[in-house]
Design brief:
Elements: H1 2-22, H2 24-36, E1 40-42, E2 45-47, H3 55-97, E3 109-112, E4 119-122, E5 128-132, E6 135-138, H4 154-165, H5 168-171, E7 203-205, E8 211-213
Antiparallel strand pairs: 1-2, 3-4, 4-5, 5-6, 7-8
Helix pairs in contact: 1-2
Length: about 220
């Protein structure tokens, strides 16, 4: 019985060898594995072992991927918010000044947004404030940090949150305070220069009734 089994296995191997020799693609594959090394043999074919990460490692990889996506989404959203506030400032100044140049008289201007009845105050230096019952609030796009740091990502926030709720209560909590120093906005304002009237010379009336002005010396 064992002898018949061995004969059957040899016959199967010979048949496989014959198929490889007849097929060019299989022969190239055989030559490759003959040079590089053969995988494990199982039954009548090759068995290719694949690396399969464990459950914990899989969760960690997925968590890291989600954290990176969260960081890029955070960065994109903040850049869009910064751009919206910047465009709003430019639009309000344009409505208040009727140009991109500050008025020459140095006055502040108030305008009302017709869509939501919000009142804005535009200072002569170009800064814009939202006027409310609580006071005037500066509209500054630099309040938004367009470059979020590592502490703002899930890769830091979630593990630290779990730590502070458990071990941190005994060993001391990790500080999660985010320090952001906004850049100082440099405002360059060009004032409208009042048009100078051309100075005229002395008024002279000619005999024919025509009036001319002599040149000023």
């Amino acid at each position: 019985m064992n002898k018949d089994k061995k004969i059957n296995e040899r016959f199967q191997r010979l048949s496989l060898v014959g198929n490889i020799l007849r097929d060019q693609s299989l022969r190239r594959r055989y030559d490759y594995f003959y040079t590089k090394g053969f995988p494990k043999w199982k039954g009548t074919g090759y068995y290719y072992t694949k690396y399969r990460p464990g459950f914990i490692l899989t969760i960690f990889i997925v968590f890291c991927l989600i954290s990176f996506l969260h960081y890029f989404a955070l960065k994109i959203n903040r850049k869009q918010a910064y751009k919206r506030i910047e465009n709003l400032k430019d639009e309000i100044k344009l409505q208040a000044w009727n140009s991109k140049i500050a008025p020459a008289d140095g006055s502040d201007r108030k305008i009302t947004n017709q869509e939501n009845d919000q009142v804005f105050l535009v200072k002569n230096n170009g800064s814009v404030y939202l006027v409310t019952d609580d006071g005037d609030h500066l509209i500054d796009p630099n309040e938004i940090n367009i470059n979020p740091g590592f502490k703002e990502t899930l890769l830091f926030k979630l593990p630290v949150k779990l730590y502070n709720l458990t071990i941190g209560k005994l060993a001391g909590e990790i500080d999660t305070t985010i320090h952001y120093e906004k850049p100082v906005e440099e405002i360059e304002v060009t004032h409208q220069q009042p048009k100078k009237k051309k100075s005229r010379g002395k008024k002279v009336e000619l005999p024919n009734g025509k009036v001319i002005y002599s040149r000023k010396k």
